[in-house]
Design goal:
Elements lengths: L1 H12 L5 H14 L3 H14 L4 H13 L3 H14 L4 H13 L3 H14 L4 H13 L3 H14 L4 H13 L3 H14 L4 H13 L3 H14 L4 H13 L3 H14 L4 H13 L3 H14 L4 H14 L2 E11 L3 E15 L2 E14 L5 E16 L3 E12 L7 E9 L6 E11 L4 H6 L2 E11 L5 E13 L3 E15 L3 E12 L13 E5 L2 E4 L5 E14 L5 E16 L2 E10 L15 E11 L1
Antiparallel strand pairs: 1-2, 1-17, 2-3, 3-4, 4-5, 5-6, 6-7, 7-8, 8-9, 9-10, 10-11, 11-12, 11-13, 12-14, 13-14, 14-15, 15-16, 16-17
Helix pairs in contact: 2-3, 3-4, 4-5, 4-6, 5-6, 6-7, 6-8, 7-8, 8-9, 9-10, 10-11, 11-12, 12-13, 12-14, 13-14, 14-15, 14-16, 15-16, 16-17, 16-18, 17-18
Amino acid sequence: MRSRLRTIVLLALLPFAPPALRAQEDANRAWDAGDVETAWRLYSARLAEDSSDVRALHRLGLIAAWAGRYDQSLALFDRLLRLAPANREAVVDRARVRAWQGHTADAVRALDTLLAAAPDYLPALEARAQFLGWAGEYRSAVATYERLGEILPENRSIQSSRAQILSWAARLEESIALYDSLVRSDPTDLATRRALGQVLGWAGRLDSSAVVYGGLLAADSTDLDAWAGLARTRSWRGRLKAAEVTWRRVLALDSGNVPALVGLGQTLRWQGRDAASRAVLARARRLAPNDPDVRTQWRWTDVAFRPRTGASFTYESDSDDNGIGTLAARASWRAAPRLDLRVHGYWRWLEQRGATGFTQEAHGGMLELALLVEPGWTLTAGAGASGSDVPGAETHVRFAARLATPAREPVVATVSVTGEPLDATAQLVRTGVTVRQGALDVRAAPAGGWTLTGAVSAARFDGTEANTRVAGAAGVSRRFRRAWNVGAAVRVFGFSKDLSDGYFDPDLYAVLEVPLRWEREIRWLTPVLEAAPGLQQVGSDGNVSAVARVRGELQLTVAPGRYFAIAGGYSTLGMALFASDVGDYRYGYLTVGGGWRF
């Protein structure tokens, strides 16, 4: 009341006050109103009249720092502290300027000197905790916030800052507990509820995060921060379509929201829609060309638009006396924002060992065009040729056409028509077997780590004579504990003829498996183990028998895009056989290889 009365009296007497006092009050009013340009001009005039005006020096120092003129700001604070060395507020604000410059260690040292004389000076303690957090010294920052909390246990701002530092220190459960207690004590604190939703997302508790953001939006459907948080949560959960819709909701409320443009661009890129992502990020670049998140996401899209090349080599030896070495190369170029030009080729050396052993060579290549059609459809068409060193062998035409539905959808379907030689063994190359096939593949990924697959196909095999095959497959699997995957799969096919062209062609083959897979990345090593017991029937008049297969692989990553791998397996399944008669079949193989991406 006294302060308000004093202000009223001063305003009433201001017309009769000396010019210097009127100039000072004008400067103070400009400062209180946030008019920093006018305040700078008036305080500068005041300082010209009285170079010892501590308030003018202090506020001019802050204004200069806000404008990024740090050297000028520090010079003003140094003048102030020479006049008033015991001015604690000025010491803290000068340290703040040093922290803004990036010299956090120097800022903390200045505050420590002040706190040695005044250990409970709250502005210095709070600034120290903040600067330590900026510097990544989270343990010391948390300790300082705990000291502040002991002095002011009911101060929500301090507890909220402490929760934030805990999250930065990856002590997420502690941060969540603190934020949760603050929300329970005051459910109307929207900023704290938003922060709780964010940290829950960082902790991988995505359902809980979505609930928090949903509560905020139920109270205020125009809360942009809550919409953005919900969009991020949905994208992290892999619900890319829902995330896209949510980001677009934010942009409908604020078309110039740069973080939302960045989030939408990232989500579109995760959907495989690189051209759409680039268009959105181009808008963000026009609005904020120097924003670090914009620049980071733009660099990610650059990867998709750059020419890419790669090569790989594998050699396999199996228990059927086959040796197969394959050298493959590929390249792609984004010829237009939504058009990929791809080329790939291979050379294969094949050996049939044994008493009547022989070797063959096969090679082939294809040029493909891939058109990306919004919102995420992919249409691919390609043609090429394949040949071998078999005397008198003809050159075979290779072709492929595929149409895939958007990958962002929970159900993805691919329709394909392909034609290629079946040159997996030396015997097949010598016979000159080719395959033309039409297929439909469907893959669904409902919530909870489940995956459903299905496929049907019809194919024509041409060798010594034509042979047709009709096939179908279905499977279900579920990932749990990140590294494990378990499921069930069934495959059925049948050929019209029983030939001796070197491939497995019974009139009926059916197999039911229960595969269990373990895969884990351990730094630069990726081990994979897989076992699949099951039942099979070979031939329409055959008996059902128990079968199993096991497989192991170890991949060594030597650099991004460069790896070496060794794999081996053992199987009693009939479809591992390149012959018509099964009998008591056992099959084993060992493969070594590597790949390079440039």
